[in-house]
């Protein structure tokens, strides 16, 4: 039986899942062999979390709850890592604060 994992995480990044955050998200997803999908609602539609085009097209703004699911080898690790990335504001919190101060 294949391993599966699911999680939900709210986007708190000011620009949401836009260009840079989407690149970071998909780049991290691609480091795992598990099949990883995301959706903006629990019922879907589900998209490939490793596709930059599909992730950017989701246009998930700040406050959106991302629903993640993964199956296969490393599924739990993949979901855990992606949730952590979103919770860390895609590692851009310091950049965002500096940008706000200079704007």
Number of strands: 4
Mean pLDDT figure: 90
Give the uncertain stretches in residue-range form: 96-103
Helix and strand sequence? EHEEHEHH
Beta-strand portion reads 15-25%
Percent range for helical residues?
A: 25-40%
Envelope shape: globular
How many structural domains? Answer: 1
Major sheet: 4 strands, antiparallel
What is the CATH class designation?
Alpha Beta
What do we call the CATH homologous superfamily? Answer: HPr-like
How much is the radius of gyration in Å?
13 Å
Question: What would you say the CATH architecture is?
Answer: 2-Layer Sandwich
Distance between the ends: 52 Å
Question: Would you tell me the structural class of the helices and strands?
Answer: alpha+beta
What is the tally of helical segments?
Answer: 4
CATH T-level fold name: Histidine-containing Protein, Chain: A
Main-sheet strand order equals 1-4-2-3
